[in-house]
Prior knowledge:
This protein has 247 residues and is an alpha/beta fold. The protein contains 13 helices and nine strands. It has helices at 4-7, 11-14, 19-29, 58-62, 101-111, 123-129, 131-136, 138-145, 151-157, 190-194, 197-202, 204-219, 222-226; strands spanning 35-38, 50-54, 71-72, 86-92, 112-121, 162-165, 168-169, 235-236, 240-246. The model has no long low-confidence stretch (mean pLDDT 94).
Amino acid sequence: MALYDTLGATYGLTRRPDPRIAARIHAALDSAADVINVGAGTGSYEPVQTVLAVEPSQIMLRQRAPGSAPAVCAVAERLPLRADAADAVMALLTVHHWTDLAAGVAELRRVARRRVVVLTWDQQVFREHFWLVRDYLPQAAAFDDTRAVPIDRLAALLGGAEQLPVLVPHDCTDGFGAAYWRRPHAYLDPKVRAGISMLAQTGEDVLAPGLAALADDLATRRWHNRYADLLALDTIDVGYRLLVADV
């Protein structure tokens, strides 16, 4: 059973693509005539030239919007595609779920004629700069330590890659890990947490003390005083990175 067959049932409710992040991804794809989306989930950020989505979870595939690109149930490590199948291949917030990173990246490079685009995060930057895991939920950061892919290793497997920071807007519509950095109440919502694998996989019992502390700090406005500088920002860099590699 794929991971998101158990975690992805409500994914479509909170993980809507953010247009500003979409613009960054689509710019990185450049003038690709056709694109394959690997680890596609529900289809977020797929450009109009997407010709195929690859996703191992049937639950996620069933949440794809009508009119989306055709999709196949398969894993990144064994793509059911010929070599040089498309101009570009993209893999967004997915490499940390793969069972064999090197095999998966080799498959991306095999299938792409010109370019591979990967969205991931730098775990060290994330740990140090994202208040939620640094100050309230270190257990979630510890869980991510076990699966986060070092940026330099990923770039090396890609044969060298440009590393572009992806800033997170304060009103980000895609509810991934740090999306609610200026809307802290959102992390108290179980539906929001269900759409963030870092939190969903760490487990509610483990998170409960930190979430209780966050709720108390919000009720007493200690959070607002402690993080007053964040409330003046429109975007933040907490380590999300777009890796762009030509093959």
